[in-house]
């Protein structure tokens, strides 16, 4: 599903994405992360009971020995299992790999059954909200660098949401299913959500109205302060803890200078069972002059949260390791980029090749091979057509179709003069360069 040139395009265009994937953001004084992978197939019981209503999207398998297996739904649950099995209590990691979901594919909206996720997680016992703030900073930095347009990062806390449900009289056994319904508020109006709560989840209309008073609120520090003074919510221990941490989080995000893109949104629920504290989700905002159709239909492009209890589910002694992490929706970002490129008619370079070695006459294959070998030895990313005697027109057309910026043309006259004709493919300007100085000239022209 994921085309390597598209991955290359994203990674070469986005410096923050490169830092995310290497987990090394040393320019900002942050530590080196480790790459930690996981197996593609895991025992079925490892995945079950972690995804709420989304459990039906898990691909279930049975091997020849009769063991029940499943394809990984995300990278978080296998990571938590890895920590428990290896007794790791402190790590910062990144992971880029495929996951699988029995979903209805919609390629224009970046929804596939097999797709890549890019995850960054911090595990360990640290002071409150510091790792959480860094995860949000990473999301903000990546989306800003990609220049996808205006975006908003919604944040909430499962403890606040559970506190709201408690004061509205919802039994704890219905918290998770009610949260799954609340999570639909970004797609459908409140009345539809309320009808599902009453008709589908068995809540009373009064309880649903009570929930509606809170989950339709969104704002910043002012809203947090307002809820801390709420006569009902402030009496709930869990909600009060969550609001205290949310206030601290916003203080850190203010120091990072990113609160302009952050919204405390009580409708954000994220339907996965394993979240225990702060949750967040990044969405793109529709622009009035945006020519990309169905941009709103793309949905979230990043999401994550705190899952302090997940590792303990896999530890024989139930030992917990606090964790927080974020997943970047690479496929959805590709869908947006590709739609924008199509709409603009812009040509996108899909290769790292810097120069094509070309010849204008026949019987010069040996000259091309010698020159390309010299360029390779000098560290230049060069290629040539795998034909003995291609026409110059075909070679230049190949440059244009692949987005190769330069062509090094060597003919009989150039061989005689000890030069190479360097052609700018876009402007068609040509200049003779001494052969020994060709690598330096190519580097000079392609400097950022």
Describe what this molecule looks like in 3D.
- With 448 residues, the chain is of the alpha+beta class.
- Helices cover 38% and strands 19% of the residues.
- The chain has 16 helices and 17 strands.
- It has helices at residues 4-13, 15-22, 44-47, 76-85, 130-146, 158-167, 175-182, 190-200, 205-215, 221-228, 237-256, 330-344, 365-377, 392-402, 412-417, 438-445, and strands at 34-35, 41-43, 60-62, 68-71, 91-100, 114-123, 151-157, 218-219, 262-265, 278-284, 300-306, 323-328, 355-358, 382-383, 406-409, 419-424, 430-434.
- The longest helix has 20 residues, at 237-256.
- The model is unreliable at 1-9, 11-32 and 291-297 (pLDDT under 50).
Q: What are the main properties of this structure?
A:
disordered N terminus; elongated; 448 residues
């Amino acid at each position: 599903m994921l085309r390597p040139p598209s991955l290359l395009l994203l990674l070469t265009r986005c410096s923050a994405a490169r830092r995310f994937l290497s987990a090394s953001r040393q320019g900002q004084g942050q530590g080196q992360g480790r790459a930690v992978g996981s197996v593609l197939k895991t025992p079925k019981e490892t995945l079950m009971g972690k995804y709420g209503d989304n459990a039906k999207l898990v691909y279930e398998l049975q091997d020849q020995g009769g063991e029940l297996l499943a394809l990984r739904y995300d990278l978080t649950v296998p990571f938590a299992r890895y920590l428990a099995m290896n007794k790791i209590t402190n790590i910062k990691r990144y992971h880029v790999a495929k996951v699988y979901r029995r979903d209805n594919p919609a390629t224009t909206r970046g929804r596939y059954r097999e797709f890549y996720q890019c995850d960054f997680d911090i595990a360990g016992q640290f002071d409150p909200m510091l790792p959480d703030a860094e995860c949000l900073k990473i999301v903000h930095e990546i989306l800003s660098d990609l220049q996808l347009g205006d975006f908003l990062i919604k944040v909430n806390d499962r403890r606040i949401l559970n506190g709201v449900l408690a004061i509205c009289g919802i039994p704890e056994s219905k918290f998770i299913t009610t949260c799954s319904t609340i999570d639909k508020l970004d797609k459908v109006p409140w009345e539809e959500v309320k009808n599902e709560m009453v008709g589908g989840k068995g809540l009373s209309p009064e309880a649903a109205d009570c929930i509606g008073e809170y989950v339709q609120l969104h704002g910043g520090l002012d809203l947090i302060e307002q809820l801390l003074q709420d006569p009902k919510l402030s009496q709930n221990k869990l909600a009060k803890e969550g609001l205290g941490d949310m206030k601290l989080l916003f203080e850190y995000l203010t120091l990072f200078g990113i609160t302009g893109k952050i919204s405390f949104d009580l409708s954000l629920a994220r339907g996965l069972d394993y979240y225990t504290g702060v949750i967040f989700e990044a969405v793109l905002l529709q622009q009035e002059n945006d020519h990309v159709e169905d941009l709103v239909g793309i949905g979230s492009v990043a999401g994550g949260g705190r899952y302090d209890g997940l590792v303990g589910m896999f530890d024989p002694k139930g030992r917990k390791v606090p964790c927080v992490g974020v997943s970047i929706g690479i496929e959805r970002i590709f869908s947006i980029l590709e739609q924008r490129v199509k709409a603009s008619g812009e040509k996108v370079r899909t290769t790292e090749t810097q120069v094509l070695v070309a010849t204008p006459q026949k019987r010069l294959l040996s000259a091309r091979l010698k020159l390309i070998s010299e360029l390779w030895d000098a560290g230049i990313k060069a290629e040539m057509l795998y034909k003995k005697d291609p026409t110059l027109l075909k070679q230049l057309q190949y440059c244009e179709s692949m987005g190769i910026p330069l062509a090094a043309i060597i003919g009989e006259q150039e061989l005689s003069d000890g030069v190479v004709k360097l052609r700018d493919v876009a402007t068609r300007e040509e200049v003779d360069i001494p052969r020994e100085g060709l690598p330096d000239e190519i580097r000079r022209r392609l400097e950022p």
